[in-house]
Amino acid sequence: MELLSLIRAKRRGAELSTTDIQQLVTGIVDHSVADSQLAALLMAICYEGLSYQETFALTRAFIDSGVTLDWSHLPGPVVDKHSTGGVGDKVSLLLMPWLAAAGLTATKMSGRSLGHTGGTIDKLESIPGFNVNLTGAQMAEVINDVGCCVVAQGADLVPADKIVYALRDATDTVDELGLIAASVISKKVAAGADYIVLDVKCGSGAFFTSLARARKFAQVALRLGRDLGKQIGCVISNMDQPLGRTIGNILEVHEVLDILNGQQLDILNGQQTSEDVVELCATLGGVLLALSGKAANASLGRQAMLDLPKTGAVGERFERWIAAQRGDVAQLNAQASTPNTTRQVSVQATRSGVVAGMNTRKIGEIARRLGAGRLTKDDRIDPWAGILCVKKVGDTVEAGEVLAYLFQGSSSEPIPKELLAEYQQTITISSYGVELPQVVLEVLPPNRGLSVIGG
Ligand code: URA
Questions:
Q1: Residue 179 to residues 86, 211, 256, Cα–Cα distance (Å)
Q2: For ligand 1, atom 1, which residue shows the shortest CA distance?
Q3: All residues at 6 or more sequence positions from 330 whose CB lies less than 8 Å from its CB, including other chains
Q4: What is the pLDDT of residues 356-365, one digit of tens each?
């Protein structure tokens, strides 16, 4: 295939044919397409975009580049969840055992950190002993045992996306709508679940910074789902501030433990530290309960989800799941109850007022530079590096009060002073009150009651 002509065509804004795209993906997988040329094409795509036809062709070709899993032998319905990428997004860690406790079979192939956003696999790997590399048979065993399982994308599942994903990360060509849609939907279709919910992040920390773009993505995702025979629901959620309070791998796992152990699940009383995480999990779960026919609509599904943790069923399922994937629950609990506070520095507010905004992308980038994410694809994650956001949007703050703690992880280098100043600059403090942000912005499609979310 003449890759130069494809790059030239895309640079001029032309539409690539289905055959071009199929051949491109074949060349990516057999390594006959050079990284340099693929990077140039990706950059052209970022400028010119992909049409729906191109996005569909890319999604189909991605799926066909590897195997498709079949879970028909498992007790159904089998559900899956995916996020378009956020900062402090620990939803999968909590939602998967929560779905299992709700009677669904939840499987998930997750990715590693991408750009300024974190990855579920890195978070799970920060749990001592946790094994993310399971064979199909081992996955089935874990699912039969606890009802949920999360693994790293195996080499044979959508291999083309694996190659393109890493190159997009290395060349800052991540945030093109069609590329994200093809990446997400191909993996979800190949992973074989019956019902899929997408958490479409929207805001300063997301790849879609406006509601219009997030909606457009959700519509493309729903259309791809329909054209590929999958039932998909989308929740557009707020990423104008980090989700929950922590950013960074083991820090986020500890926050989930806090949620499970504390009273934070009682979101109706408000004033809790991680209520946005809980609300988002309940809404995503509610959509899956509605899609799979276990709730009459998403609103009732959300309520059923919220009733569950009070029984202790979610915490119990979480521990069983971690243990089933060889995670050391006792060590995890011990670490969480005695956090290492010697390697942290605080960032103070320079003025008094109300936190009116957080530049979430910048905050994600600071976490990445502390070691919570990768700057190159070969970098190692530092599980203990990250940020604890003490103040979030709507919180009042006095000058000199702590806005956040930065954790340097295992690095012996002190945290550079400019990083503290950069964090201060990410926070907008206003003298006026602000409207408290809702974590759930919209639920699609607006049928079967899916858009009618209460609370
Ligand atoms: N998540 C994915 O799996 N792919 C993307 O491109 C972005 C987020």
A1: 17, 18, 31
A2: 84
A3: none
A4: 999 999 999 9
Write the Ramachandran bin of 280: left for phi over 0, alpha for psi from -120 to 50, otherwise beta. Answer: alpha
Any idea what DSSP says for residue 441?
Answer: E
Please report which confidence band the pLDDT of residue 342 belongs to, taking 50, 70 and 90 as the band edges: low
Tell me: pLDDT of 277 over 60.
yes
- Joined tokens for residue 268: 């109706």
Per-residue pLDDT at 173: 94
Nearest CA residue ID for atom 2, ligand 1: 184
Q: How far apart are CA 166 and CA 205, in angstroms?
A: 20
For the record, the structure tokens of 291 come out as: 């899609």
**Which residues does residue 371 pair with via DSSP β-bridges, in sequence order?**
none
Q: Enumerate the β-bridge partners of residue 149.
A: 107
- Report the amino acid identity of residue 26: T
Q: Report CA(417)–ligand 1 centroid distance (Å).
A: 32
Q: Which residue type, as a one-letter code, is found at position 273? A: T
Contact partners, residue 259, CB within 8 Å, separation at least 6: 94, 265, 274, 277, 278
> Which residues are within 8 A (CB) of 234 and not within 5 positions of it... i.e. 6 or more apart?
197, 198, 200, 218, 221, 222, 443, 444, 445
Nearest CA to ligand 1 atom 6: 180
Nearest to 76 by CA among 233, 313, 312, 294: 294
Cα–ligand 1 centroid distance for 244 (angstroms): 21
- E strands present in 22-101: 78-83
Q: Report how far ligand 1's centroid is from the alpha carbon of 190 (Å).
A: 14
Strands 344-348, 195-202: pairing is unpaired
**Any residues with CB less than 8 A from the CB of 74 and at least 6 apart, and which?**
105, 140, 143, 144
> What is the rounded distance in angstroms from the CA atom of residue 181 to the CA atom of residue 391?
33
